[in-house]
Design brief:
6-stranded mixed beta sheet, 13 strands, 25% helix, Purple Acid Phosphatase, chain A, domain 2, alpha/beta, 5-stranded mixed beta sheet
Length: 265
């Protein structure tokens, strides 16, 4: 067995927010995944926006329905599985998926219907995707955390996941890592990208913020991208935030999306 056979290649994508995904950023992620060939992929929350289920004020000109969002999310999952047929894929609930749970709580006559479970709506079994739920109940015990190597992967919501967020890149994962988990953390939710390290005489912790694959509105301090790292003997190495800028990604000699660069040659 070669050294490469003993190493798991991990890819983490966060905050797609269907139907507000950035099509170019999603295309780049899909292309990159085919080249990187991850053993494990984590969809780290907020795959679906569930705009119509929100309790916030809603723009009447936004016409996408819950049905539209679910259909587009299935297309995303289908493409991800097609491009990564051998990868173990895990879907972690985010705060936007939790909108469905809160909606059903407000409409208890619908609660308990199997067809309204997120697993059923998104056809997770069809795409062989494992689900990690989080409980919006104050007394619930489902944290939405997953352990990968020596790090915790979480969506990064304050209330649901026990994170501690900030408006500055790197600060959210620093606060979450040092004030709570005391472990390395990979998180989404804040739509910013960062990799930080904290060393003591005994160990080094790494915190990663995974950016987003949704559109960036107005003057928002958001960064598009995704995360990769490798796990060997229970320890993670080579954390990278792959930053998509102006619809392009350059990784060494590889350029994405490939069709755009090929046209310019």
């Amino acid at each position: 067995m070669s050294l490469e056979d003993k190493i798991d290649k991990i890819m983490v994508v966060s905050d797609i927010h269907v139907p507000y995904q950035d099509k170019r950023a999603v295309e780049i992620m899909h292309e990159f995944s085919k080249d990187y060939k991850p053993n494990k992929i984590y969809i780290n929350g907020d795959l679906v926006d569930f705009y119509k289920l929100s309790t916030f004020d809603q723009d009447p000109y936004r016409k996408e329905t819950v049905k539209d969002e679910v259909y587009m999310a299935r297309l995303f999952l289908s493409e991800l599985r097609k491009n990564n047929p051998r990868s173990n894929i895990t879907f972690l609930h985010g705060n936007h998926e939790n909108r469905l749970q809160r909606y059903l709580w407000r409409n208890p006559e619908l609660d308990g219907l199997d067809v309204l479970q997120l697993k059923k709506l998104l056809d997770l079994d069809k795409y062989h995707i494992k689900e990690v739920s989080v409980d919006g109940d104050y007394w619930g015990k489902a944290t939405g955390h997953v352990k990968q190597g020596d790090a915790i992967i979480m969506h990064g919501d304050n209330r649901l996941n026990g994170a501690s967020t900030s408006k500055y890149a790197g600060y959210s994962v620093k606060n979450t890592m040092l004030n709570g988990s005391n472990q390395s953390v990979v998180m989404g939710h804040i739509h910013r990208g960062a990799v930080i390290h904290h060393s003591t005489p005994y160990r080094t912790l790494t915190g990663v913020e995974g950016g987003c694959l949704c559109k960036i509105p107005g003057t928002a301090n958001w960064q598009q991208g995704f995360v990769t790292f490798e796990t060997e003997k229970g320890k993670n190495h080579n954390y990278q935030f792959h930053h998509i800028e102006h619809g392009k990604l350059i990784e060494g000699k590889s350029k994405y999306p490939k069709k755009i660069w090929q046209k310019n040659q």
